[in-house]
């Protein structure tokens, strides 16, 4: 399963989810759709998912997640990127290009007003769950790899530095009264 097919899977899952604000619903539908595929396609989907996780492993996005969720550990950043993936390709690509555009998304605005963290840990296991459902077995060891890029050193600063964060992410920090 290539990226194009993967994004189509996410859109189908979004169409089937009763509430697209609930990332876990979208992840569950994506996993169910994926379970209908061959074991080879499911394994390829797992690789594609981790390729997207690597693509989104960027300091500016991590800083945005830090603002949105009031802090962001390594695992928290994974779960935030899972949430970003369930938002669909257009949003994913737009936010990667400019993380400050998160402030324009209605779901982010609602989360800011209600004090809700944006994360979707369930997204990270859709292929594992689909493979087990389809085959009765876990994904084979070594079925995928992940190669995170080096983080941008120009973003290597303390994310608690409110002045610097406001300079780099003005819309988000204004939305979150950071």
Q: What is the succession of H and E elements?
A: HHHHHHHHHH
Return Rg in Å: 17 Å
Shape: globular
Percentage of residues in DSSP E strands: under 5%
Question: How many beta-strand segments?
Answer: 0
Q: Can you walk me through this structure?
A:
- The chain is mostly helical and 178 residues long.
- The protein contains ten helices and no strands.
- The protein is 61% helix and 0% strand.
SSE diagram, text form:
Elements: H1 3-16, H2 23-34, H3 39-55, H4 59-69, H5 74-86, H6 89-97, H7 106-114, H8 126-135, H9 162-168, H10 170-175
Helix pairs in contact: 1-2, 2-8, 3-8
Comma- or semicolon-separated keywords:
10 helices, globular, mainly alpha, 0% strand, 178 residues
Task: Summarize the entry for a quick read.
This protein has ten helices and no strands. It is mainly alpha-helical.
């Amino acid at each position: 399963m290539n990226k194009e097919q993967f994004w189509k899977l996410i859109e189908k899952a979004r169409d089937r989810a009763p509430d697209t604000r609930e990332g876990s619903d979208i992840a569950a539908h994506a996993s169910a759709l994926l379970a209908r595929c061959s074991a080879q396609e499911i394994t390829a989907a797992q690789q594609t998912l981790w390729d997207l996780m690597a693509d989104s492993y960027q300091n500016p996005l991590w800083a945005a997640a830090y603002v949105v969720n009031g802090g962001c550990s390594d695992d928290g950043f994974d779960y935030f990127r899972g949430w970003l993936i369930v938002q669909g390709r257009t949003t994913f690509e737009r936010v990667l290009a400019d993380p400050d555009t998160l402030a324009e998304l209605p779901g982010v605005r609602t989360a800011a007003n209600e004090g809700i963290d944006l994360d979707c840990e369930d997204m990270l296991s859709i292929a594992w769950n689909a493979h087990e459902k389809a085959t009765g077995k876990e994904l084979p060891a070594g079925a995928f790899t992940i190669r995170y890029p080096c983080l941008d050193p120009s973003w290597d600063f303390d994310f608690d530095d409110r002045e610097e964060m406001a300079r780099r992410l003005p819309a988000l920090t204004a939305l979150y009264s950071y």
